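Can anyone check this?
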Amino acid sequence: MDRFQDPAELVELLGDWSTARGPLYRRLAAALTKAMRAGDLPHGERLPSERDLARMLQVSRATVVAAYDELRSAGMVDSRRGSGTRVTTEAPKRRPGADGRVPGGRATSIFQRLVDGPGELISLAFAVEPAAPELADVVRELVDEELPELLADVGYHPRGFPPLRETISAYYKEMQLPTVPDQVLVTTGAQQALGLVGQMYLRPGSTVVVESPSWPGCLDVFRAAGAKMISVPLDDEGISADGLAQAFGEHRPALLYVMPTFHNPTGTLMSAHRRSRVAEIAARHEVPVLEDNAYTSSDSACVPPIAAFAPPGAEVLTVGSLAKAVWGGLRIGWVRAPGEITERLARYKVRADLASPVLDQALAARVLPRLDEIADGRAAVMNARLDLLCDLLTEHLPDWRWRRPDGGSALWTELPDTDARVFAQLALRQGVEVVPGAVNDPTGGHDNHIRLPFTFPEETLTELVRRLHRAWLELKRHGPENPTHHPSV
């Protein structure tokens, strides 16, 4: 009960409430009503105080008062001195967990945006772009040369389509990580790979050591398994080796999760020396390592995966994917691990979906050898967009601070002396969906950060910064501590 006493959690649930039509207080009342009828705000739940919710939403207290009055008139809430405002309406009963949300999860708004679709907002929830142009040529080649043979296949390969597993093995051999097909399990994207590993290694109460910050979509996979997270900070070479050793010694975790290649959201490329240290520390403490290398490029080919540095007997699982490098619609990922681990993961995989689509895997087998070529083509475009974004921010938002990323597709940006959750509400009213840093780091260490993808076309980047600039001026004009001065309706 009263889990929404922290207004930030309620704001996460309300999503893009302020983009609807009508007076602001009615938009808020409508969003709260929708949450009540859906059962997200259950009977008896205490709502945040008017002042606290106004501060977090960056509206006047009068706006929240008017919204609560509207709900009281409709019989949705009741207010009493000493007990606050509580939900009085009854929602249809449903079984716990039936809404698909992860209790305590931080990726709710990101996943909901994926479900809802792009809408009219400039959404910063995802760093995505259309398919690499080379993919069309590969599709035509596949149809012309392989389709009859593929359609004659039985279609079920729980471990993965054999030619693709062989191609992935060759890919890792070129990256100084000797691999045989029996060490490879093909998955339906990297996200499924993480989910399968979580199912196999984690139980309620397990501990996972993660980087701070990290990608919330992955963290929610671990939360859904009942695990708790221990965060270790990053430096310019990757996760802190000293912090990692300390976390292992104090918490005896079930798993270490890291993103060594163009870490999301910071874009940091973990150095070869740091990868070696991580492998050595994990082996010494007997902690399995899950390295997520969903981001890749030809520039990173000279830095082998952590698994390449692991001493004999170490347990390192290496996840890869074509979604970021080629196209999000090509839902092909994989796990490279010791043979006995892959065998166990395959049993979880077959229970999940029997097998990944054969045509997609055959396409992936043709695309993977061209990954360097595709990455080189994309790098030129992405570097130009990054340059433009940095120039625009320097000109229009000179107070903001960032470190130019080693790679990836986003700029991890610090907003000085500002809670990004508060700024997100003002940005939303300017037509930008911002993901606050608190989503990436629940410890509070990056509450003043946001992730700015530079995957947009140049004209969209220009408009994005224009809207962010307007929101920032609004914040500076009124200040986060003085919400009562904002227009009320």
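Reply from J.R.: I decoded it. The two ends are 31 Å apart (CA to CA).
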